[in-house]
Design goal:
The protein is an alpha+beta fold. The chain has 7 helices and 35 strands. The longest helix is centred in the first third of the chain and has 20 residues. Bound molecules: (2S,3S,4S,5R)-3,4,5-trihydroxy-6-oxo-oxane-2-carboxylic acid.
């Protein structure tokens, strides 16, 4: 091999290693909202770039992999500096961050491709601090550049990621450029086919987090598995590389314990908890928890509760409960876009509360951390999910790695949220050998990361005559018998539903993860008139009668709280790109069926005392 070739190979290898491993985002720090931080939300300049002009040269090679590393839009040249530059952020319009691009510019409603974001900011650097550039979520693939240098790549549209930028920031002016690509691809998670809008862009908060050089990176403070009396958790300090004392305080419970980390900054602990007010939807008690290391201090609000199953019962703090739920997408119908603010999130949660819910299914991907914190505060149990949806590429190891990563990051981020009762590993995945292996591994992974919560998936039913059977082998490995069924809509008629019964092969609590029917708010007819509110109303009456007969029914999340946007829903009169299974319209109007479910939840109890 010639010297030149050798050099080239080494260069390619280094590029590969830096972009695909070390240059990539790193594990995110716990509780960024509890840190010293600079919000980079607000107006960002943007360039629509369908040909990836700002990323690839005319031979389709990435500029950032060339020798100079220059040539892309991330250089952020202005015409003052270089009159031949064929772009200029300064004269472009702005998008609001957080927020999807589709709902902010008519040209972008259906856009699937590449778009560049740019924002300037200033920092006054302190030499004894560390700085992390943190993204709440960007859909789907993002390439992040700071002051013209690449920080790395991230894939996955719903999970947070961050870069350590401590030695890359300028004291004073800085600029960050992000290339976002929301092109759907077969081997990604989710895959090309979903029943929701493929909102692109920087959809969640961007934050510059500041910590001391040695900082508390992560912690878990939760009750041990099914144990009402003991806290089990860990603290991870980073940056010191030596043993040190860390103090954990819960002032209201008069708890103050000191633990000593190992030389990697890690300590695992258990300690007893007395006279505690357990968290529940009726009484969502949160305690202030403070962790102090030799250099850092962080405060969180944490609730304590146990959840487990015994045969067909779900026990919350030892008592049998019924999960009165509703499914929810991360979307504000009034905007026709992703939820952006706390106000948006509270609107959704208030609707769920108004319906009488104690539980929500945050379908079909990881929702905003702020949403989980609000669920903790207002008292709603949560089913949290990863976008392993329908038919993804079961035998591609990269696809598995991606799904596992999204699951892991979601669990790591939200492990201290009492509201999360259930980790779901997927939705309506078709049975096959490859899928069983994939999903089996994902279930094991979820359990190994967090065995204090229930693990579930939305399975499907088989029908023959008037019998709907649930016997997906995955059910053996899961904690719930949960499945979607569309009796009265995709199959059969509402009036026929009393004839159906369920044959569920698992001695586990039955939690119906979906059922639903479409109705256009304000469209009235008799109960046989499809798309009318009356049709949906009768549908709910008959569904609830049918489901009531299931032995071991312990909860449900009908599909869905609010009408939501989907490219699959084309009917020009009834749908116009809205899935109309909501109990509330896209303008916030409650349909008749809302009141049927509200009434059902009002009187629903578990008769058995456990
Ligand atoms: C389902 C899917 C959900 C769809 C829904 C529907 O089974 O899980 O994502 O939106 O049906 O409306 O068809």
């Amino acid at each position: 091999m010639s010297r030149k070739n050798y050099k080239e190979i080494v260069l390619v290898l280094i590029t590969f290693i830096s972009f695909h491993f070390s240059g990539n985002s790193q594990k995110t720090i716990q509780n960024i909202y509890g840190r010293e931080r600079l919000s980079l939300n607000g107006s960002w300049k943007y360039i629509i770039d369908p040909y990836q002009m700002g990323y690839l040269d005319y031979r389709q090679k990435p500029f950032d992999e060339s020798k100079s590393g220059k040539g892309g839009f991330y250089d952020n040249l202005t015409s003052m500096e270089n009159s031949k530059a064929e772009y200029n952020f300064d004269f472009e319009p702005t998008l609001q961050v957080p927020g999807d691009w589709n709902s902010q510019d008519e040209r972008l409603l259906f856009y699937e491709g590449t778009l560049w974001y740019k924002r300037d900011f200033t920092v006054s650097l302190k030499s004894d601090k560390k700085y992390f550039l943190h993204f709440g979520a960007v859909n789907y693939e993002s390439h992040v550049y700071l002051n013209g240098k690449k920080l790395g790549v991230h894939k996955g549209g719903f999970t947070p990621f961050q870069f350590d930028v401590s030695d890359k920031l300028n004291d004073g002016n800085n600029f960050v450029v992000v290339m976002v690509d929301n092109t759907r691809k077969k081997d990604e998670v989710p895959t090309i086919n979903t029943d929701w809008w493929n909102y692109g862009g920087i959809t969640r908060d961007v934050t510059l987090v500041t910590t001391p050089a040695s900082y508390i990176e992560d912690y878990k403070v939760q009750l041990a598995k099914a144990d009402k009396d003991n806290i089990e958790g860990f603290i991870q300090v980073k940056g010191n590389n030596k043993k040190e004392n860390v103090v954990l305080e819960i002032p209201e419970l008069k708890i103050k314990s000191t633990f000593t980390t190992d030389e990697n900054g890690y300590v695992k602990f258990t300690f007893p908890l007395k006279k505690v007010q357990y968290w529940s939807p009726e009484m969502p008690k949160l305690y202030q928890v403070t962790i102090t290391s030799s250099t850092d201090k962080i405060t969180d609000k944490i609730g304590f509760r146990t959840i487990k199953t015994v045969n067909k019962d779900i026990l919350l703090n030892g008592k049998s409960i019924f999960l009165k739920g509703i499914s929810v997408h991360d979307e504000n119908p009034l905007l026709g876009g992703r939820l952006r603010s706390e106000g948006d999130m509270r609107m959704i949660l208030n609707w769920a509360k108004d319906l009488g819910c104690n539980y929500i299914r945050l379908a079909h991907y990881t929702h905003n951390e702020a949403m989980l914190r609000l669920a903790d505060e207002v008292g709603l149990f949560v089913w949290a999910e990863v976008p392993v949806y329908w038919t993804i590429s079961w035998s591609n190891p990269e696809t598995y790695k991606n799904a596992e990563n999204q699951l892991t990051v979601g669990i790591e981020r939200d492990k201290n949220r009492a509201s999360i009762a259930i980790w779901s590993v997927g939705n309506e995945t078709p049975i096959s050998n490859e899928r069983n292996i994939f999903m089996g591994k994902l279930i094991d992974k979820a359990r190994s990361l967090d065995d204090t919560r229930l693990i579930a998936a939305a399975l499907e039913v088989d029908r023959e005559g008037y019998i709907a059977t649930v016997d997906d082998a995955l059910g053996e490995k899961l904690d719930l018998a949960s499945f979607n069924e569309y009796g009265g809509w995709y199959w059969s008629e509402p009036k026929e539903l009393p004839k159906y019964s369920f044959d569920i092969k698992f001695n586990k609590p039955v939690v119906i993860s979906e059922f639903g029917a479409e109705a256009v708010a304000g469209f009235h007819g008799d109960e046989d008139t499809i798309w009318s509110e009356e049709f949906q109303e009768l549908f709910y009456i008959k569904q609830l009668e049918m489901l009531e007969r299931i032995d071991g029914l312990r909860g449900m999340t009908p599909w869905i709280l609010v009408d939501f946007k989907s490219p699959r829903r084309q009917h020009p009169i009834h749908q116009n790109f809205w899935n109309r299974k909501g109990l509330i319209s896209e303008t916030g109007k409650k349909k008749k069926a809302f009141y049927i479910l509200q009434n059902y939840y009002k009187y629903k109890t578990i008769d058995k005392k456990k």
